[in-house]
Amino acid sequence: MSIITISRGSYSRGKEVAEKLARKLGYDCISRDILLEASSEFNIPEIKLIRALHDAPTVLERFTYGKERYLAYLRSALLQHVLKDNVVYHGLAGHYFLQDIPHVLKVRIIADIRDRVKEEMKRENISESEARYVLKKDDEERRKWGIQIYGIDNWEPSLYDMVLHVHRLTVEDVVDILFETIQKPAFQTTSASQKIVSDLALSAKVLASLATIAPKVGVWSDDGVVFMTTTYNELSLTPEVISEVKDIAMKVPGVKEVTLNGSTKQPSQQDYINPFHNIG
After folding, report:
1. Beta-carbon neighbour count of residue 162 at 10 Å?
2. Each residue of 108-125: pLDDT tens digit?
3. Among the listed residues 233, 170, 24, 192, the one whose alpha carbon sits nearest the alpha carbon of residue 101
4. Is residue 148 a contact partner of residue 278, using CB atoms and an 8 Å limit?
5. Burial class, 127, CB count within 10 angstroms (exposed 0-12 / middle 13-18 / buried 19+)
6. Number of structural domains in the chain
7. pTM score > 0.70 for this model?
């Protein structure tokens, strides 16, 4: 029982790898499903969620925290999904959203630029130079997004357990390698690692529920006890809003107790703090 995230660029064959690996393992294979679930649960148009994952925040969003809200919704939807385990996720930002879960195998699939250019030329019916430009621009935008949101370059190898190049290695080769790797004890779900997922999922759901009134609050949980921290002046939270924050958090299924500020508890490695503090 494990979770696999596959990060990929355009025309890297990562989608094909994910689908074939999921079939071989008997796992769910998800990608756009998360966008649809978040769109439905939080009543947000899918296009806004997509833009939140691709575009830099506008000046208005820096004041309204629009991007943070949408990312909180997506992260919550993904964590709720992986609570079931046995998932291959090849959607956007999985290596960020699930980075603190021990039994997640994080994979980066890359492909030869010449192969990618050929595919872009064929699909869009454009010249080689145009295709190369489009791919370079797309890669750079994804890279900037990771740096802006998390302060991490998504080309950084340390983000992943494995980086595999589909060129000399075929898609089938990559699937076989990942199939063997996921059997290793390091990537098997344990009671401890499952608790981490449960705590992260609850934290993310609380954060998503607060996204419209307190998008910069930090949230982490431990067996249903939710801890939140914030700076009143920074967020302009009045006592009335503080009370509302607690009330909203207490209504989230699974929450037993809420503590806002003043807690002596320090988050450990598996605890979840608002991951979008770099935005703006």
Report:
1. 15
2. 999 999 999 999 999 999
3. 192
4. yes
5. exposed
6. 2
7. yes
